[in-house]
Amino acid sequence: MKNQRRELFSFRWVCAALTGLVLLAGCATPPSGLPAKTGSGWIQDEVADSYVFGYPLLLMSAARDDALGTGPGQAQVNVLRHARALPSSGALNPMRPSLDTLDSTGWLDLGAEPIVLSLPNSGGRYVDARVLDMWTNVIWSSDIPTAPRITGIKAQSIAFVGPGWSGTLPRGVRRVEAPTRYLWVNLRIQANGRRDISVVRKLQRAIRVTPLAIYAGERRAASVVARSDRPETELPDTPAAQIAALNAADFFGRLAQALADNPPVPADPDALQTLADIGVKPGLPVRLPRDASSTQTAPGLALGRERVASPPSNLMSGNGWLWFGDDVGQYGKDYALRAYAAYAQPGIGTRHDEVRATVQLDNEGQKLNGARRYVLHFAPNQLPPVRGFWSLTAYMPDGALASGMPEQASVIGDRRGVRRNADGSLDVVVSAVRQKAGNWLAAPRGEFQLMLRLYAPKPQATDGTWQPPAVTRR
User: Which residues contact 166 (CB under 8 A, 6 or more apart)?
Assistant: First the structure.
């Protein structure tokens, strides 16, 4: 199991005081009077560092641009779009869709005034609400600081206040300072199967996102409508695919524009200086080094892509599973962890919100395949440690739900009637072949992956004292 702290970048990118390099891994700015950079060897490293640093902001910007508008599956800014049904077989949007909750999502623009999020009393139903800044830090969630989401949430109103705003909020409205102009809201309400959807929809209709002037009665609301979900046949490339396709000029050009409204969180003058070294400044046209565009910039971009997609060493691991630990959702200057989290599990919350553990290999190191039969044996002291609930779902290698899966066996968990053994342990059989007895999770017929979700996890789920069992081939 890995639970050590990762250095921000690999040991290959070290401080080089004599050359005056300023790397994102935390090297100090060299004192004045040192020689300026010579040659072009520094460009590749700084392009790679800057790619890792800026990746979450570019990914969030692409996701926002896809979601805003008046087309199918889109909504206007400051308007929530509600999922109306649980994902069906073959669903891919979002990646690894949940069969436990219905989502309500939207993008807030705080450029003109604060935006108020009003939540209803959920009547004891589990609600996970979180708000992320444009750097993927969770700035508020329904578990911060006191809301016991495992027994539902109480009616409340939260005002998200953008940079530079100074004013008075109505009484009873909680103030949350936002470091970026744009925010992403993601609310998930527990759905106990498809027969429970009408209750969830009622709660969705009671959620409000309101500009402050309208909330305070100073301005009338305009009529806006959130569109229905986009048909799966019309899905565009995912935000991750869009960003991966950008060349250096386009990536850093978009990053420069995004930085104008969304300064780094946390503030990092060294990171901005590194960007300036390669010709990237907030709000200005990009001027990448011309003399090394092919020999240094392109390899630096490729290296950045590779590092974003590589699990960092402080990712939790055990028995073939990978999941995020205590630092998720509040990254500080751990840019490697932040970038990988944005790449692998966009929108992931904090250690208080949720754990999503994934596995693609069995106990023999072979890829999972539905043609085989697997058993997960949870010992009595190894059951998923949650304050809320947990579930296990099988997905295709690309994160989609397999077509033709039996609804009653597509997801299994403690809220879905799993049966324990006499000693308190629990066995789950995973296979494409229907099992007549026991706890059966249906798997695709070919290769697949598993995701174990822990809603409102206990501390041992993220501090290294617990791990899921191996997926054992039988």
Answer: none
What are the two backbone dihedrals, phi and then psi, of residue 131, each rounded to the nearest 5 degrees?
Answer: -130, 125
> What whole-number distance in Å separates Cα of residue 19 and Cα of residue 21?
6
**Phi/psi at 214 (nearest 5 deg)?**
-75, -40
Separation of alpha carbons 353 and 402, rounded Å = 27
**Measured between alpha carbons, how far is 284 from 97 in angstroms, rounded to an integer?**
38
Nearest-10 Cα torsion for 41, 47, 52, 58? 180
Instruction: Pull the structure tokens for residue 32.
Output: 């004045």
Buried b (16+ CB within 10 A) or exposed e, 179-200: bbbbbbbbbbbbbeeeeebeeb
Whether residue 468 has pLDDT greater than 70: yes
For residue 251, the surrounding DSSP H or E stretch is helix 248-261
Residue 366: Cβ within 10 Å count: 12
Longest dimension (CA), the chain: 77
DSSP H or E stretch at residue 204? helix 197-205
At 8 the three-state DSSP class reads: coil
* E strands in 110-197: 115-119, 127-132, 138-141, 156-161, 174-177, 182-190
Cα–Cα distance measured from residue 292 to residue 279, given in angstroms and rounded to the nearest whole number: 13
Task: Please check whether residue 448 is in contact with residue 397, taking contact to mean a CB–CB distance below 8 angstroms.
Answer: yes
Asked if residue 156 lies in contact with residue 174, where contact means CB atoms within 8 angstroms, the answer is: yes
Position 94 scores a pLDDT of: 63
Q: What is the pLDDT of residues 159-209, one digit of tens each?
A: 999 998 999 999 999 999 999 999 999 999 999 888 899 999 999 999 999
Q: Cα angle at 65 between 62 and 69, to 5 degrees?
A: 160
* Residue whose entry in the numeric block shows the structure tokens 């409508």: 225
